[in-house]
Amino acid sequence: MTISLVATTCGNATADESVPSDLIASAFRRHCVECHGDGDTIEGDVDLSDLNLSRLSNSPELVANLIDVLDLQEMPPNADQALDPESRQNLVTELKSILHTSVTTQDRFAATPIRRMNRFQYNNAVIDLFGLDCIVFTLPERMMRDHKNYFRPETGKMADLVNVGSRPLGKSQMIEPRLAGVAAFPQDLRAEHGYDNRGDHLSLSPLLMESFLKLGQSITQSPDFVASRVGIWQSFFAPPDNTDGVGNEVRRRLEPFLTKAFRRSVTPEQLERYASFVDARLARGASFTDAMKSVAAATIASPNFLYLYDKSSGEQPTGALDDFELASRLSFFLWGSLPDEQLLDLAGRGILKRPDVLDRQFDRMVNDRKLKRFCDSFPAQWLQLERIISSVPDEQRFPKFYFAKYRDSMHMMLEPLLLFETVLIENLPITQLIDSDFSYRSVTLEDAYGDLRSESPMTKGGGGAPTVLKFHRIPLADRRTGGVITNAAVMTMTSGPDRSHPITRGAWVATVIFNNPPDPPPADVPALGEKPADGEENLTLRERLSLHRQRSDCKGCHEQIDPLGFALENFDAIGQWRDQYENGRDVDMAGTLMRQHEFNDVVQFKDAILVEKDRFTRALAGHLLSFALARQLGPADQITLDEITGATIDDDYKIQTLLKMVIMSAPFQTKSTPANSPVAP
Q1: What angle do CA 334, 340, 346 make, to 5 degrees?
Q2: Res 2 pLDDT > 50
Q3: 321-326 — which CB contacts under 8 Å span 24+ positions?
Q4: How wide is the angle at C-alpha 363 spanned by C-alphas 413 and 435, nearest 5°?
Q5: Count of C-beta atoms within a 10 Å radius of residue 501
Q6: Distance (Å, rounded) from C-alpha 215 to C-alpha 226?
Q7: Within 10 Å of residue 152's Cβ, how many Cβ atoms?
Q8: Residue 429: strand pairing partners
Q9: How far apart are CA 410 and CA 417, in angstroms?
Q10: By the 8 A CB rule, do 495 and 391 touch?
Q11: Average pLDDT of span 437-462
Q12: Which of 502, 500, 510, 449 minimizes the C-alpha distance to 476?
């Protein structure tokens, strides 16, 4: 007898595990198995012809994928196989019930892998450990520089005028106070659809380990590593006034230093090992300061400093983080660095995990200026802004994009970053990221928008020196601009030298806004040429692409991303507005979002996304949770995303609520032992 899986998974009935529920079996049979089960070729290697309750319950990844493609209305792809809205919702609800039961039974999240610090985190950690008043080495991945300390989250308000710098400004922008003689190790690359802190991308080769040993020595031996630059100089490196009992003084100084460096209580054996190293150096005639520099160099080259890891949860597959692990995870998420003394003190007292304490610490941390490090890392990677560095519009077609030896992109890239920072500092709804009623622009950026200039007056000539750019907060009345989707940076970086790339733009929207990246195209599909082929000169770009994507294995992805990309087709290759192509044909950007929200212009497209703002909330929650955990999300995390999303919606979509719910979530506070894998002790 066939029975509802909802009842089965709730334990209210005994089901025949050889069959799925009536609803699922009927829906798959009528709408899915033609492509996913019948015939010699099973599309996507997903066979739905022989599903049973046992297989579904033991395949949470399959169930999670089915929920995604059904909920986003990507499947079934053909109109004649479409599900009616009620049936689709019932199917999604039943599959979610199965997923919830499945992940609850398995009782484990994907393991956050042991990993080394990336270059950005290492720089911050060394600064905080020594209390440096300069950076360790230049970080090109920091795309925006703060001049004159505009970033003040404790005020809850972003300044109306900010002075910033931009990475594309070249060497002059990279002249910052830093330690002389210290060379950075190679930049860590961003994972595909992920971030540069992903554990599975942060290996430590013997060659890199050797470079860390040399790096630690170069830092403490730098001519700039002196009392005037090192905040802990007097308390750690300066010789004690009383040379009697120097061994005890070394141990007294080392214990808090090693605790902060290693982010956990130091064992007596560890303390003695490092103290004995100093004793030996002193016995050989080294000065106290030099001996302490040597042990500091050894500390920042130690795996206990370089590696981020959770201790084994024992025989259980999962367990709660201890307080020190939670302090470290929290600090590296929001500050990209070591926990400070207050977090370590609370962890040492065993009370950091208390919800009321953790809640207060979150509020403290988001009001600390070290939050700038989160803004220097997450939003640029989430928005994939590194792509604008290599954007080179054709100089003959877009001559105004270039000025002196610079490009407009150096101004463009700062606009979405300043928007994100403002939403975060002022705790605005995340819907402002889709359709903001304000922005930050320089005079140069205003000119770059052409017909989309705002009506706000600015001081002419107020663009600032080449290394310092002045950006003004301006109101936006024209909804064609505003938000992260339609700004000039995204429009430029998703275009080629000669024309816009709607497929690239659609893939960007799917990935960034809906956290639903499309599969890569087949390797044997040639790219559409920048310029029309012979006989295609009078076609619109949509018509040219329709000829290009006739292959059946391309159809599914194109139906997903084409409407998203063509919705932005009124923006040319440098983000300026156009109603017609150069051949005189009108731009056709009309489409339907998720097969249900029709739009005829970009404002209606934004309205359609705002109707689906709950999906955007869940997508952004997924990006943030993945960044916080330094891993790809798994099926068990999907239930958590629903909970984070619901709490954020209930608080009017406030961004700080979204962040707080991430750190309050079960995956954030849980550690898992990888199956058949060693775990750090």
Answers
A1: 100
A2: no
A3: 321/353, 321/669, 321/670, 321/671, 322/347, 323/347, 323/348, 323/349, 323/350, 323/351, 323/352, 323/353, 324/263, 324/264, 324/265, 324/348, 325/264, 325/671, 326/352, 326/353, 326/358, 326/669
A4: 35
A5: 20
A6: 17
A7: 14
A8: 654
A9: 12
A10: yes
A11: 81
A12: 449
| pLDDT (mean) for 89-112 | 72
Instruction: Tell me if 274 sits within 8 A of 261, measured CB to CB.
Output: no
Contacts with 655 (C-beta within 8 Å, 6 or more apart), sequence order: 423, 424, 427, 428, 429, 430
List the Cα angle 331/336/338 in 5-degree steps.
Answer: 50
Question: Residue 54 phi/psi, 5° resolution?
Answer: -65, -45
CA atoms within 13 A on the CB side of 643: 15
Pairs from 143-146 (Cβ < 8 Å, separation ≥ 24): 143/167, 143/376, 143/380, 143/385, 143/386, 143/413, 143/414, 143/417, 144/376, 144/380, 144/413, 144/414, 144/417, 144/418, 145/173, 145/176, 146/372
Between 87 and 518, residue with greater pLDDT: 518
Q: Do the Cβ atoms of 384 and 512 come closer than 8 Å?
A: yes
**Full 3-state SS string of 306-354:** HEECCCCCCCCCEEECCHHHHHHHHHHHHCCCCCCHHHHHHHHCCCCCC
- Cβ atoms 353, 326 nearer than 8 A: yes
Nearest-Å Rg of the Cα atoms of the chain is 28
Return the residue matching tokens 């606009």: 415
Q: Give the whole-angstrom CA distance, residue 70 versus residue 431.
A: 24
Closest by CA position to 376, among listed 231, 195, 508, 203: 195
Rounded to whole angstroms, the Cα distance separating 327 from 349 reads: 12
| Structure-token pair, residue 516 | 């639903």
Inform me whether the pLDDT recorded for 134 exceeds 80: yes
Specify the residue for token string 């070394």: 250
Q: Which of 480, 487, 519, 481 is nearest to 503 (CA)?
A: 519
pLDDT tens-digit readout, 383-436: 999 999 889 999 999 999 998 788 899 999 999 999 999 999 999 999 999 999
Q: Could you give the percent of the chain with pLDDT greater than 90? A: 59
